[in-house]
Fold:
Amino acid sequence: MSPRRIASLSSLVLAALILAALPARAGTPPAGRPLQRAIDRLTERPKGPPGAIVVVQRGSRLRVFRAGVANVRTGRPMQPWKHMRIASTAKAYSGGVALSLVDRGLLSLDDTIAELLPWAPDAWGEVTLGQALHHTSGIPDFSMSQAFLDHLLANLDDPVKPRQLLGFVADEDLEFDPGTEYRYSNSDNVVVALMAAKVTGHRYQRVLRDEVLRPLRLRGTSLPSGVEMPRPYIRGYDVDDQGDPEDVSEVFAAGYAWASGGIVSTPFEQNRFIRAYVGRELFDRETQAQQFDFIPGGSSEPPGPGRNAAGLAIFRYRTRCGTVFGHTGNTAGYTQFFAASRNGRRSVVVAVNRQTTPTTEPEVFRELRRVYTLAVCTLNSDRR
Structure:
């Protein structure tokens, strides 16, 4: 291991040891106690996630709250420098790539599929980059296709190529005229990433590295294609028929989600990214003004806290404790939420190691969504 890598890991370990807020005890400041109690309750539920971790940063002050375990076999605690699948929060990264290229004049929000991806179905031709980022394209969601699900189950560790993800819905009509409705679709960010690859002449993984990961110094963030997780990692779980946690961390290849959800990162680096993304470190104010064209009621998947509205690869969350901007996501073994204030100086990350949705575990999800709100309230406790 290089001296630079050792130094980087050492600084993360030191920060966590100094700043971690361990389960609600006398040392937890009053503003953080409701949040700590909430994640304790969440991880103690019979069908709750085994572990939860929350990163809250105001200016230069960073705090970490955690409950439960990262590994049910060893009992190791949740740690903010360990890797997790970040699920659909990866869509914000593809948004960062695209809007960075827009800022540099290599892409336009008005560029169409017909212009940049001529191999795609003719019916999709008039869909623009902006509509794909806004989830107003009308392109069917490949992940909801029965053909995709059948292929996935038969080939869990052998992903298809990115273009083939769209192939699962290439014979389907658009669900509505582009730009007329909002409908969340995993196909949209595959289109975005392929457009970015086309105009740069490089594979999306390289474009992601050049436009986002390297400028923001996200050395622990990557877009793998296979099933293996980088070490060390927080294990992700499902619950079997007997109610026992089942490790699903490396069940299917990340390439099946690709730019829509295949990225692996850490809570610390998720926090660094969302601060930069909302705080305009990747593009200028004019580009952000276009990004912040919000569709009221456009909800992330799963829903974030408060009232949701959809922008370009970002969501606005209006809560009782203030407004933040970010994204949510869920995949096998993991559920994620991150957000920041408009200037990027305040940020929050909530990560748990079980997939939790409003349909699969509605009571658990309601409690998790309450954690999201309490995290925002902790973030803005000095403003109330």
Q: What stands out?
A: Residues 1-26 have pLDDT under 50 and may be disordered. Residues 3-383 form a domain with the Beta-lactamase fold (CATH 3.40.710.10). The first strand starts at residue 20 and ends at 21.
